[in-house]
Design a protein that fits this description.
Elements (H helix, E strand, L loop, with lengths): L6 H20 L4 H17 L5 H31 L5 H27 L31 H16 L9 H9 L12 H9 L5 H38 L4 H32 L17 H4 L5 H22 L6 H20 L3 H27 L6 H23 L7
């Protein structure tokens, strides 16, 4: 069962939400409650007991993988914390990060290997996907819905331990709650371990504060229904479906804008649901979108679009690359070249994180080129004064950025690669 995907999920979600309301108003919503209810919701959505026999079997397989992944990840993070100071720090850190990435890399490589006939499927032919839009091959050998988001959380926990942001060995319950936090398992937003544990430390919430949480939570869930089930669904049914099979430049351009709006409202709707349900837990969840199509340039766009992912990549990939490049003088001390390579590398990894299909890699590289291009033009403009700053420039920049970004999303859709 995919979280937030249909109304049936919300009918079942009412029961744990009601339990959370009772616990929160009584002042009993503490760490154990967050963990227990998160695991209960996760077990139900992965096991999918209301589906047919095939769906239940596939769901139970996912549940086993999910449980094994949580146990292994908690063990890995705590093991890394315990071994720090006893083993060479850098090799231990790289080994821990590598181990954390192995399941996601396997989940990405396996379906690609199946598609090219390099390995056989672990289930027989004719098996239906686990859910619409989710290829069953992804889960044949190892995997579960949400593994890409959970992997980034595990890596974040290792990094903050390495950097000294979090001291000591994290508690098992805190790590398990962080990884299995029900509102954000399947589609983020991607939380940070130190921020999440601070939110746990703030429990239980005072009654007045929790009532404000409930008010905000209901508002965000209502926003999610508007975005996903009304706006996104309308765009999908009345624009995407009719345009999908039409050839030609005009149809392709219309599809680009329709897909961009659909993707925003669908994903922003998911994120609003996650934020809203998180407030029922008394836990703030990071925002993922902030009026992205009002961005005046690509740098601003990536501060507004999929914020939790872009900031994760900025902090853990780009900044570390720049630090290493400066220390080791990889580019002869040329910070501009290092900056350009760092942006391209970071965005290429972002594309691969979505999948190994060609459109995702090209999408990532395209976003990297746009970011580099913005910096180059901005640097030239500061030197030569080609473009005067002002309201007209802001409006023109917003229109240009929105159109170029929509073209990137057209790449992401796969239409240019024969995917539609």
């Amino acid at each position: 069962m995919i979280p937030y995907a249909d109304f049936g999920y919300f009918l079942l979600l009412l029961y744990p939400l009601l339990a959370l309301v009772v616990l929160g108003l009584l002042g009993w919503l503490r760490r154990p409650s967050v963990l227990a209810l998160s695991l209960g919701i996760a077990a139900f959505q992965y096991a999918n007991p209301l589906g047919d026999a095939q769906a239940v079997a596939a769901g139970m397989r996912q549940l086993v993988f999910f449980a094994a992944y949580v146990v292994a990840s908690v063990t890995l993070v705590r093991g890394y914390a315990a071994l720090r100071g006893r083993c060479p720090e850098q090799p231990l850190f790289y080994a821990a990060v590598t181990l954390a990435l192995v399941p996601l890399v396997w989940a990405r490589l396996y379906p690609a290997a199946v598609a090219h006939g390099l390995v056989g499927r672990a289930v027989g032919p004719g098996k239906a996907p686990l859910a619409p839009g989710v290829p069953s091959g992804l889960f044949d050998a190892f995997g579960f819905l949400g593994i890409s988001y959970m992997t980034l959380r595990v890596v974040d926990a290792i990094i903050v331990l390495h950097d000294g942001v979090v001291k000591g060995t994290p508690r098992v319950a805190d790590l398990a709650s962080y990884l299995a936090f029900a509102p954000t398992i399947s589609a983020g937003p991607i939380d940070r371990f130190h921020r999440f544990t601070r939110a746990l430390d703030a429990l239980p919430r005072r009654r007045a504060d929790y009532l404000r949480d409930l008010e905000a939570g209901v508002h965000r869930i209502a926003q999610g229904f508007l975005y996903k089930f009304i706006v996104a669904y309308s765009i999908y049914r009345h624009a995407l479906v009719p345009l999908a099979g039409r050839p030609g430049l005009l149809a392709g351009t219309a599809y680009m804008y329709a897909f961009s709006l659909y993707l925003f409202f669908d994903f922003a709707g998911y994120s609003a649901f996650a934020v809203g349900v998180g407030r029922f837990f008394g836990m703030p969840v990071p925002e993922n979108f902030r009026a992205p199509f009002a961005s005046r340039n690509f740098r601003e766009m990536w501060d507004r679009w999929h914020i939790s992912l872009s900031w994760w990549l900025r902090d853990h990939v780009y900044m570390r690359f720049m630090l290493s490049a400066a220390r080791r003088r990889w580019f002869g001390g040329d910070r501009r070249r290092a900056h350009a390579v760092g942006l391209l590398l970071t965005m290429a990894l972002m594309g691969c994180w979505h999948g190994l299909e060609p459109q995702y890699l090209v999408y990532g590289l395209y976003q990297g080129v746009m970011l580099v291009g913005y910096d180059v033009v901005g640097r030239w403009n500061r030197q030569y004064g080609w473009i005067a700053e002002g309201a007209f420039t802001d409006v023109a920049g917003t229109i240009l950025t929105a159109n170029l970004f929509c073209f990137g999303l057209l790449i992401f859709s796969g239409r240019l690669f024969g995917g539609h």
